[in-house]
Amino acid sequence: MSLQRLQQSPSGANALQAVQQDLLKAKVRISPRYGRFDTKSVDIVDTAPNWQVAPSPTASAQPSATP
Question: In the chain, what are the domain boundaries?
Fold first, then answer.
C-alpha cells in the first residue's frame, strides 16, 4: 500500500527510482534460501531448488488388452 502511494506521487516516483538505481549499484546478494535478486524488476524472486528433480513420466497403470 505504501509502495503503491509512493509510485503514484511524482516526488515518490523519483525517490523510488533513485532507490532502485542505488540497489543496482550495490550488487545485492540474497541467500538462495530466499530466492534471487532480479535486477530487471528490482525484486527478490523465487527460484526452483537445484536439488529437486522433475518427476519423469511413468508407464500407465492400465492393463493392456491381450487377445
Answer: 2-45
